[in-house]
Amino acid sequence: MTAIDRSQGRVARDTADADASMVPETATGNRALQLEEPLIFEQGTPGRIGVDLPPVPAATNRLGGTARKGAIGLPDLAEPQVVRHFVRLSQKNYSIDSGLFPLGSCTMKYNPRLNEKVARMPGFADLHPLQPVSTIQGALGVMAELSDWLKRLTGMAEITLAPAAGAHGELAGLMAIRAAHVARGDARRRVIVPDSAHGTNPASAVLCGYTVESIPGTADGRVDVATLKAALGPDVAAVMLTNPNTCGLFERDVRAIADAVHEVGAYFYGDGANFNAIVGRVKPAELGFDCMHINLHKTFSTPHGGGGPGSGPVVFAESLAHVAPGPRIQTADDGSYTVDAVPGGGAVGRLKAFFGQMGMFTRALAYMKSLGRDGLHTASGDAVLAANYLMVRLSEEMSPAFDGPAMHECLFDDSFLDGTGVSTLDFAKAMIDEGFHPMTMYFPLVVHGAMLIEPTETESKQALDQLVDALLSLARRAKAGEAAMFHAAPRYAPRRRLDETLAARKPILRWTPPVDTRAAAE
């Protein structure tokens, strides 16, 4: 067995795996244009600099005993080293700009560059949150127009743009629900959530002080309405439902559920994560929801991933408009905009500092205005069409988790791999060798070995066909007994398989210089 040592925190490449002869080692560790890149700390040379700075003038030390006594520990590098290092790292990333991103339940769609240009326009990009309201009228106008679009598309009466993400929006909606119950002297403590919900649903409810009861799904992947109705009672504050749900299916009984929830005096919360499947076609208010958060990155094409920034506006029906949190933008008689910082008598109050993520607002509004209502209607239809196209074609070799057409994403289980010796994880790693980021694996948890694919509306038929051809080929190779190939995957990635559990539990977050064993021996 041979390996190339890439020092602390790196993973050695093992060439003893099956099919290793197809990936010959090189003296440098490079694979053609896929360059092996050391840590930036390993490249430093004392005294090497990329910029000339004037001498520091003499000054009285005012740091007392807190002055640094040793070197700061940063590497000394020339400018070409720095540029090449980060360019090489960027080339190891898979992004929506390099290929189709089939993650299910995440809507990793292409972000139009026009939206990015708008967000960088002077007057938006250089705003300061403490500017006087009179100097940010244009920005407030954008936020007011975005609010109007979102209320019209959802049929809701009120909105807050403040939440910083979808989960933050969930919390905001639940806080409004709690405030409404408290206002009428009805302190309810229970929230009902289907077991196929996003994990943030029960987490947000618990964070808001509620206990959570899970409702199982039926054999066709939808909420068991009879069980849900049996769980309802005078202590239920809300029912949280995602529609279309996390299995990529529309909840056909949504109106019956809404009526049952309202009959016991509870509120119906809508998880708007999958609003992109129905936008322009049905308004959540018409389905009976009292409030719903909207992930701007999923439905309206603002950037997703990388830790943010995010945006999760919440819309409220008339039933909850009186406790909707702020800040909210209001239009004065003269057409100017003002900010109502704590509406609703302060029932919920301010959710976060300032007004939310301005860069997300400009991008989302640019997307809406460039498509228009008809374009949004077409986009949701294209997303559903693409998912069902994948469902039909992939069903030649893969096993759909549920019968019938899907909405914006298609879900498969791992039964097509039974007896092959290939696991869902093996299948995902082999997709990397084919040049694709794996789809969402093992989620939703209600499906064994789940593989959830969301193609979105931004991919062409040619791109979808390329993904289908790769997946069908892998499925056939698994059934043909080529398990060893899957166990060795990925073979062509910058790194082979990692112990992801160990990396998460015991990460090496700090680099320390290697010990010179020869000097130590002397």
TrEMBL record:
Ranges of Basic and acidic residues composition bias in the record: 7-16
Enzyme class, broadest EC rank: oxidoreductase
E.C. designation(s): 1.4.4.2
Catalytic activity field: N(6)-[(R)-lipoyl]-L-lysyl-[glycine-cleavage complex H protein] + glycine + H(+) = N(6)-[(R)-S(8)-aminomethyldihydrolipoyl]-L-lysyl-[glycine-cleavage complex H protein] + CO2
A Pfam family this chain is assigned to: Aminotran_5
Region span, Disordered: 1-29
Domain Aminotransferase class V: 188-305
GO molecular function, one term: glycine dehydrogenase (decarboxylating) activity
UniProt protein name: glycine dehydrogenase (aminomethyl-transferring)
Upper lineage: Bacteria, Pseudomonadati, Pseudomonadota, Alphaproteobacteria, Geminicoccales
Encoding gene (name): gcvPB
